[in-house]
Amino acid sequence: DTATEREAVRSAIERVAARMEEEKEYLTDLDSAIGDADHGANMDRGFQAVLEKTDGMDDADAAELVKTVGVTLISEVGGAAGPLYGGSFMSASAELGDGITAESTVAFAEAFLDKVQDRGDAPVGAKTMVDALTPAVHTYKKSIEEDDLEPVEALTKAVDACQRGVNFTTPIRAKKGRASYLGWRSVGHQDPGATSTLCIVEELQETAVE
Ligand code: ADP
Ligand code: MG
Ligand code: MG
Would you put residue 160 in left (φ > 0), alpha (ψ -120 to 50) or beta? Predict the structure, then answer.
């Protein structure tokens, strides 16, 4: 019911916020190698603001909470990642309007990826969050729709796929975002945004296990 879903979304928000705080330095280190050393601070600040904004939303349903995540990230986080993550949470939240089901979460994941690609215009292989998100979303969808897995198992598969996507960003050259200014010098560094995407997917999986 609505209350159970609200608590699940809140629990996911708390987990992601705690994880961003934990990874703040690591994400910033990754961004200092190929960017402007702010990705950890951006994500941490954004999700701390999300925690504050969603704290009093005692009557909100899942879709409203997720929409607030997006709106807050857009307003609190500048740079590339804020509008990309924020815009996606905001628009994909509509897919949860009738509740959280295996089907609606697949629709959410697909809408999320679509929006990142719409806004950022990065193909797979440009060394961005798209490289982590794409295999995660495709694996989640296939696991639910073709392999008939439960959402929690599908998420476990998605985490594995996402990790491989993150690994794939290291040897390739950046073609989008700040890292692309470095050209070939971006080779050999793991992408910060792909890494934060993995952290988020891992925390969603942990929430589903709960
Ligand atoms: P900024 O680069 O503006 O400082 P952040 O450091 O917060 O913003 O985020 C950088 C991350 O954003 C990159 O590691 C990359 O994953 C992601 N990114 C940058 N540009 C794009 C894009 N056009 N499409 C998708 N992701 C992008
Ligand atoms: Mg940066
Ligand atoms: Mg920046």
Answer: alpha
> How many domains does the structure of the chain reveal?
1
The pTM assigned to this predicted structure is: 0.98
Q: Which of 131, 176, 190, 196 to mutate to test the pocket of ligand 1 (most atoms within 8 A of CB)?
A: 176
Average pLDDT over residues 141-157: 98
Ligand 3: centre distance to CA 29 (Å): 13
Q: Provide the domain limits for residue 57.
A: 2-209
Helix (H, G, I), strand (E, B) or coil at 57: coil
Question: Largest alpha-carbon pair distance within the chain?
Answer: 51
- Report which residue type is found at 20: M
Contact (Cβ atoms closer than 8 angstroms) between residue 7 and residue 60 = no
Token pair for 49: 């603001």
Cα–Cα separations (whole angstroms), residue 42 to 3, 9, 161: 30, 21, 25
The CATH number covering residue 6 comes to 1.25.40.340
* Predicted local distance difference test score (pLDDT) of residue 90: 98
